[in-house]
């Protein structure tokens, strides 16, 4: 059986000599079968890493500027990880290339110079343990590869990186953090430091964080419900703890998350994120961020579904969108854990025809081949009446795609006391479909009762629900106006959709806003441009069609126009007061009306 160093020397570009490589702390079987390496996978990563290394070398001065002038350590640490991977990898064009030593040493020396006495960096937050942990994870991995390689010219580099890692340990073991996923990131950084330079405080800190319990919801998502943080932070950290902290039970946690992710994959490699509580709730995210996690669990468990995802991503190659992590940055992980380069087990069919309800996120996903839809009723706004980072507040309640024709967002915005968009208070199964409902109230305030009046007229500054005023709102009698909204979403046998929208109670104008992904053509006799709103139209009659190549979504009918139903999307006072906007990017079509009303939107 060979060690990692033999593995590094024995794999060659398009062909690899079989080895019996096992990474430190691996939970995989410690034997290998002749010809067990996935030669094509290794060749792809080697080529990608060489390309990425050239990019890093061309721009590494920018990383130094970010580090020295803005305290951003993460890009420099990742650059060290990337350059290290090609330096130690025998098949790489940069293997033991002395041209890499200068940039590597400069990056490491600058990281050491900018490291505070407590072992931390800023990265946008003062002396930040979690932000430091991102860099320490990468530097830990780089040090492990350099140490295993043992090439004499890297002795100075190794000493500098070791000094950085040792200095960071106490700060990570004593410092605090901000978000749920930071706990596991800090633990992962400490686990790798402790494995090489044991310190009792490190496992104590890890166990203290782990004792809080892993924040996994019943459906498999984590509490932040974010595909970005699942893929980039939480899953990798939990896998590190499984290997290096003796927590083999965490494989089951990651496995459950990856199983849940199978149902939010779009055919083109995007991952649905409308249900996220983090910044990616309105941003596209991509499946390749999960690549090595699916590969690891496929090999470990023999799971054909996970193998199918890994094989699909390999097949799509460098032409797909990779998100935060370029493919070349992945080589270091495979060199650190050579078992990831084993051949995949037999692939199984991925789910491509299903209706999946994740109750913990109030998300329904429907897929019929290349056609998909999302029905969402899980925003946090109805519970907290607030908009803030860390809350799910995206008002999109329906999305669909037919091949390249993509409806990125369907929203409903009544002009009711400037309370903003319809955000469902619940999502429930109904006959043949799904029902979303909400009820909102706006108040008119009556005079204060005598016992709460003040002669000086100086009342407490209190919240009306929309705004603040020195009116002592809690003690005032109120006269309420109410708006009730119900949307019933149904799928037909032919793959078309109907959405029955009912607004009752107060008489107010509203706008249904359909936002289509850019790149297509919008046609329809009943479309009229909305003044001073680029790429925005009002459908006043008939149907319209959005076409991308041979794919199209036809929708309607229009519902008239006029002064009492203006083509206006009222995002609410919480946004307008701060000059904010909730207008999604794309080609927008508004269908307007006035409550009370029942309207059926057809989409096919």
List the helices and strands and how they pair.
Layout: H1 4-10, E1 11-12, E2 15-16, H2 39-70, H3 74-88, H4 101-114, H5 129-149, H6 155-174, H7 180-196, H8 201-210, H9 227-244, H10 250-261, E3 270-271, E4 285-286, H11 291-301, H12 304-316, H13 331-336, E5 353-358, E6 363-368, E7 371-376, H14 381-384, E8 398-402, E9 405-414, E10 426-430, E11 433-445, E12 462-463, E13 468-469, E14 478-491, E15 497-505, E16 509-516, E17 521-523, E18 527-529, E19 536-539, E20 544-548, E21 551-556, H15 573-576, E22 587-594, E23 597-603
Parallel strand pairs: 19-22
Antiparallel strand pairs: 1-2, 3-4, 5-6, 6-7, 7-8, 8-9, 9-16, 10-11, 11-14, 12-13, 14-15, 15-23, 16-22, 17-20, 18-19, 20-21, 21-23
Helix pairs in contact: 2-3, 2-4, 3-4, 3-5, 4-6, 5-6, 5-7, 6-7, 6-8, 7-8, 7-9, 9-10, 11-12
Structure in words:
By secondary structure, the protein is α+β, with helices and mostly antiparallel strands. It has 2 domains: 4-341, Alpha/alpha barrel (Glycosyltransferase); 395-443 and 480-603, no CATH class. Helices cover 34% and strands 22% of the residues. It is built from 15 helices and 23 strands. The protein has helices at 4-10, 39-70, 74-88, 101-114, 129-149, 155-174, 180-196, 201-210, 227-244, 250-261, 291-301, 304-316, 331-336, 381-384, 573-576, and strands at 11-12, 15-16, 270-271, 285-286, 353-358, 363-368, 371-376, 398-402, 405-414, 426-430, 433-445, 462-463, 468-469, 478-491, 497-505, 509-516, 521-523, 527-529, 536-539, 544-548, 551-556, 587-594, 597-603. It has a 9-stranded mixed sheet, with no helix packed on it. α3 packs antiparallel against α4 (101-114) and α7 packs parallel to α9 (227-244). It is globular, with a radius of gyration of 28 Å. Residues 1-6 and 8-33 have low confidence and may be disordered.
């Amino acid at each position: 059986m060979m060690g990692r160093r033999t593995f590094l020397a024995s794999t060659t570009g398009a062909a690899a000599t079989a080895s019996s490589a096992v990474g430190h702390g691996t939970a995989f079987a410690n034997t290998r079968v002749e010809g067990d390496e996935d030669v094509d996978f290794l060749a792809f990563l080697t080529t990608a890493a060489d390309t990425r290394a050239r990019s890093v070398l061309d721009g590494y001065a920018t990383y130094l500027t970010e580090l020295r002038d803005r305290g951003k350590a993460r890009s420099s640490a990742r650059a060290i990880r990337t350059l290290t991977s090609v330096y130690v990898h025998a098949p790489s064009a940069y293997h033991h290339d002395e041209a890499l030593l200068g940039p590597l040493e400069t990056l490491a020396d600058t990281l050491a110079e900018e490291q505070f006495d407590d072992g931390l960096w800023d990265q946008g937050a003062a002396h930040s343990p979690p932000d430091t942990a991102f860099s320490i994870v990468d530097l830990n991995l780089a040090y492990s590869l350099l140490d295993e390689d043992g090439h004499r010219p890297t002795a100075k580099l190794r000493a500098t990186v070791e000094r950085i890692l040792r200095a960071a340990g106490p700060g990570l073991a004593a410092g605090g953090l901000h978000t749920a996923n930071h706990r596991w990131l800090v633990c992962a950084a400490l686990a790798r430091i402790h494995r090489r330079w044991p310190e009792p405080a490190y496992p104590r800190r890890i166990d203290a964080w782990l004792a809080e319990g892993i924040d996994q919801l019943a459906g498999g998502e984590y509490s932040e419900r974010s595909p970005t943080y699942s893929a980039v932070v939480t899953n990798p950290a939990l896998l590190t703890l499984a290997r290096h902290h003796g927590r083999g039970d965490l494989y089951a946690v990651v496995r459950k998350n990856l199983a849940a992710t199978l149902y939010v994959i779009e055919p083109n490699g995007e991952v649905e994120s409308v249900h996220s509580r983090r910044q990616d709730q309105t941003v596209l995210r991509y499946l390749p961020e999960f690549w090595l996690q699916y590969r690891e669990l496929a090999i470990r468990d023999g799971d054909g579904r996970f193998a199918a995802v890994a094989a699909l991503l390999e097949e799509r190659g460098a032409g797909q969108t990779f998100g935060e992590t370029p493919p070349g940055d992945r080589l270091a992980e495979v060199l650190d854990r050579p078992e990831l380069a084993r051949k995949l087990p037999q692939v199984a069919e991925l789910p491509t025809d299903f209706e999946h309800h994740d109750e913990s996120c109030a998300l329904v996903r429907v897929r019929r081949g290349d056609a998909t839809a999302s029905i969402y009723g899980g925003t946090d706004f109805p519970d907290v009446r607030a908009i803030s980072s860390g809350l799910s507040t995206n008002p999109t309640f329906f999305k669909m795609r037919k091949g390249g024709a993509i409806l990125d967002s369907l929203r409903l915005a009544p002009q009711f006391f400037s309370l903003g968009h319809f955000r469902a208070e619940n999502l429930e199964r109904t006959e043949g479909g799904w029902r979303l409902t909400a009820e909102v109230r706006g108040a008119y305030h009556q005079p204060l009762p005598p016992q709460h009046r003040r002669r000086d007229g100086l009342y407490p500054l209190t919240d009306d629900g929309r705004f603040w005023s020195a009116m002592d709102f809690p003690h005032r009698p109120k006269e309420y106006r109410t708006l009730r909204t119900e949307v019933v979403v149904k799928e037909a046998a032919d793959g078309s959709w109907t959405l029955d929208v009912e607004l009752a109670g107060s008489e107010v104008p509203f706008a249904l806003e359909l936002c289509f992904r850019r790149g297509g053509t919008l046609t329809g006799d009943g479309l009229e441009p909305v003044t001073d709103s680029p790429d925005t139209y009002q459908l006043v009659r008939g149907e319209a069609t959005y076409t991308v190549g041979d794919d199209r979504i036809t929708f309607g009918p229009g519902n008239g126009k006029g002064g009492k139903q203006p083509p206006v999307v009222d995002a609410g006072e919480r946004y307008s007061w701060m000059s904010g906007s909730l207008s999604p990017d794309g080609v927008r079509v508004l269908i307007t009306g006035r409550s009370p009303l029942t309207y059926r939107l057809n989409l096919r």
